[in-house]
Structures are given as C-alpha cells and as structure tokens.
TrEMBL record:
Compositionally biased region (Gly residues): 155-166
Membrane topology value: Multi-pass membrane protein
Keyword Glycoprotein: yes
Molecular function per GO: potassium:chloride symporter activity
Keyword list, A-Z: Cell membrane, Glycoprotein, Membrane, Transmembrane, Transmembrane helix, Transport
Positions of region (Disordered): 153-175
Statement: the UniProt record of this protein carries the keyword Membrane: yes
Compartments where located: Cell membrane
Designated name of the protein: Solute carrier family 12 member 9
C-alpha cells in the first residue's frame, strides 16, 4: 500500500455548521482529535511520530484552514504507559509542532503499555498490524484503543475520567472529527477480513472519523 489513503466513517454525522461555506462561527465549540500513533500496533516510544503520523497532523492542519473549521480546536493525543513520566514526550512533540508551525493542544493519556519502547521502526509492506498477536489479543487491543478514544471525546483540558488530570471535571467542547492512524493491511489476502474487523472495532461509535495512511514525508513549514 504505497499510496496515501483516507477512509471515512460516519462522516454523514458531521455537525451541519462544519459543512457550510461560512466562517464556522458558532456557539457550539468543537474539537478535532488526532491520534498519530498506530493504536493497533503501538511502538516507537512515547512522543515518536512516524511518516504516517506526520501526515495525519498535516491533514488535520489543512482542515483547520477551511473557513467552516476555523473555530475548531485541534487536539493531539500521546499515549503513555503507567511507568512513563509525563511531560518529556509532550515536550518532544511540542518542539516538532513548533517546527512545523502547527498550533494544537497536546494531551497525554495513560493507556496499557503506552507506545512501546525500543528503537523506532517503520512498517514494512508485508507487516500486519498485529503480526505478533493472536486474533483474540488483537481484538482486545482494538477494543481497548476504541474505549480510550471514546473516553477523551467531549472532554476539555479540565479532565474527566482518563483525562490528563483525572477526576470528574466538566464536559467541554465535543469532538466533531477524529483522525486515526490507518495501519498497512496484511500481506496475506486471507487475513483481510480480520484486518477489516479490527478497523471496525477500533472506529466503532466514534462518530465522524478519518482513518489515514500516509507515505509522503511531510516537512513543510508554510502551514
């Protein structure tokens, strides 16, 4: 899959004001949530963003240039393991965003083992999203990732369960659109149904969602 690919799910439920040609000014505030980590195969360490993750960030930034989306707030989520200290990964990502001139909130969330550890590695064409996991374990991971993403929707920086500061907090702007990392499909066609099933679990009940796979290096600082 050596192409840039975007899969849209439930985009018919986008807020009407975000589909107009106007300025997008509305009393209802919205978030655009970006998860630049492969949630079906987390690796590379917290704060690491590969080519596909950078492509997600660029696409979300371009969306924010559309007049109807000017008032939406861009949020980028980092996954930390329970033993990982907060702050360091956020600092690395903020430095990258500053270099790319991308304005966004960065939120760290604790999830499972986080983004993994070890040296960052790019996916090979033949990689399957869960090549080292059994089907049941892969489905459990997809379900866990789905719950993580849903838990952050509709919450402002003040927190809420699973939020950056914990506690009940108050509900903030709702999430109008979610950007997710689309992993490469398996090399074996016999595994395609399972791959699609994992994507369905991952994006279930998230509302309007874009699953994106990018292979184009993004280094533009003109946005």
């Amino acid at each position: 899959m050596n192409k840039n690919v975007v899969l849209a799910r439930a985009c018919g439920a986008l807020p009407p004001e975000r589909l107009s040609r106007g300025s997008g000014s509305t009393s209802q505030q919205h978030h655009v949530d970006v998860w630049p980590l492969n949630l079906l195969r987390p690796r590379g360490g917290p704060g690491y963003v590969d080519v596909c993750g950078l492509f997600l960030l660029q696409m979300a930034t371009i969306l924010g240039m559309v007049p109807a989306w000017h008032s939406a707030r861009l949020r980028i989520f980092l996954c930390l393991g329970p033993q990982e200290a907060p702050g360091a990964a956020e600092g690395r990502l903020r430095a990258l965003l500053s270099q790319l001139r991308i304005r966004a909130e960065v939120q760290e969330v604790v999830w499972g083992d986080g983004a993994g550890s070890g040296e960052p590695e790019e996916e090979e064409e033949g990689d399957f999203v869960n090549s080292r996991r059994g089907d049941s374990e892969a489905e459990a991971l997809a379900c866990s990732a789905n719950c993580l993403v849903r838990a952050q929707q509709g919450r402002g920086r003040g927190g809420g369960p699973g939020g950056p500061e914990g506690g009940d907090g108050e509900e903030g702007p709702t999430t109008a659109l979610t950007f997710l990392y689309l992993p490469r499909p398996p090399a074996d066609p016999a595994r395609y149904p399972h791959y699609l099933a994992l994507l369905e679990i991952l994006s279930r009940d998230l509302g309007p969602t874009l699953l994106i796979h990018g292979v184009t290096p993004v280094t533009c600082t003109d946005l």
